[in-house]
Amino acid sequence: MASSGLGDDFTNCKFSDCVRRVVPLIVLSMQTIRSAVASLALAVAFILPTASLRAHPAADDMTAAARKFLSSLNSEQKAKASFDLASDERLNWHFVPKERNGLTLKEMSPDQRQLALALLASGLSTHGYQKATNIMSLESILAELEGPTRRFPRDPILYHVFIFGQPDAKGTWGWRFEGHHFSSSFTIVDGKLFASTPSFLGTNPAEVRQGPRQGLRVLGAEEDIARELIKSLSADQQKVAIFDATAPKEIFTEAKRRVEALEAKGIVAAKLDKKQRALLMKLIEEYVNRVRPELAREDLKKIKKAGVDKILFAWAGGIEKGDGHYYRVQGPTFLLEYDNTQNNNNHVHAVWRDFQGDFGADILGKHYGHDSHAK
Questions:
Q1: What's phi and psi for 103, nearest 5 deg?
Q2: Alpha-carbon 306 to chain mean position
Q3: Strand locations in the chain, DSSP E?
Q4: I want to staple 129 with a disulfide (CB 3.0 to 4.6 A). Which of 124, 185, 212, 339 is the partner?
Q5: Least confident residue range of 38-47, 216-225, 278-287
Q6: How many H helices and E strands in the chain?
Q7: 305-317 per-position pLDDT tens digit
């Protein structure tokens, strides 16, 4: 099976020069993608405003990308992709293969797909975009592994785009990009406040064990950093951190629209030494840095302001590579959950939630003057 190569060649691009906005077509080979880089970089420069002239680059970039995408659609496509900001669909997220609303990449022309992926790139870091597109490309591998009798369709272009409200660099609107094992939601308020959770990434297989992409672990860092942390703990610390010898079959929060803090289990950061605390923050940053750098910095400030010493790290299952395992990192404002127990412990689910900020609940609440989950 040929590799789709999604995300493989874009790790060294920088946001400031717009090169990371070069968007590969999912159906293209890597050779075709490489030959298209120069012309696509020039085209992207016309989509996004010059960074030095923008007060809120994230709002400008997302708005420009969304408008360009919407303007490329015919009336039927636009109707499928567009929703009111107050629509219940904005909260209707999931990560399993299922029937969804929205407009799929499969229903778009090649040029429209590029613009849809440019929208995705406008919200993510290079790091996050690479993970996202590699997750999408795993669908082709999964199709081969499961064969013709598979239960679900496996298609790297069966991913959906949703636009909520009217994209406006100074306005209030949102968008979501979603399909199997990937869901990324963004809410923009007054062009200057942003929410980027729920943020879900999953992989099946977690490690590709055969074929030309053998050895690929899209979410390898999420596993390796956490394992390094749990194994760095002393025996006494592990007794506190490990709350169950058996990992749960799924993350506890699943795809709930709103989550609250889970039971306070695990070891608190205040009980970790300097090296262990550094590993804990490195793990948190691996999740938060999925989004573009200036948004990630604000999220990390929020996490730190609420108190790093109060953050809990909890583990369930075995601690050796290949063991079924689960962990969570929970602070006063946020929750990270990771589970790898399905398909012989080779199937990862990893989510980042914000107790008050999912779907922009907190910033929309202030904007409208009431609980935005009613919106």
A1: -105, 125
A2: 23
A3: 82-83, 103-104, 160-164, 173-179, 182-189, 193-195, 199-203, 242-244, 267-268, 312-317, 325-330, 334-340, 348-354
A4: 124
A5: 38-47
A6: 11, 13
A7: 999 999 999 999 9
Residue 14: which H helix or E strand, with range?
A: none
pTM as predicted? 0.86
Give me Rg for the CA atoms of the chain. 20
User: What Å distances lie between residue 189 and 122, 168, 195, 294, 368, CA to CA?
Assistant: 16, 10, 9, 16, 10
Q: By percentage, how much of the chain surpasses pLDDT 70?
A: 84
- Percent of the chain with pLDDT strictly greater than 90: 80
CA distance 246 to 323: 10
Q: Are strands 242-244 and 312-317 parallel, antiparallel or unpaired?
A: parallel
pLDDT of 230-257, one tens digit each?
999 999 999 999 999 999 999 999 999 9
- Smallest CA-to-CA distance from 303 within 285, 319, 315 is with 285
Please check whether residue 212 is in contact with residue 194, taking contact to mean a CB–CB distance below 8 angstroms: no
- Write out the H or E segment, with its range, that includes residue 266: none
Please give the pLDDT value at position 148.
86
In this prediction, residues 337-342 reach a mean pLDDT of: 98
Strand 312-317 versus strand 267-268 pairing type: antiparallel
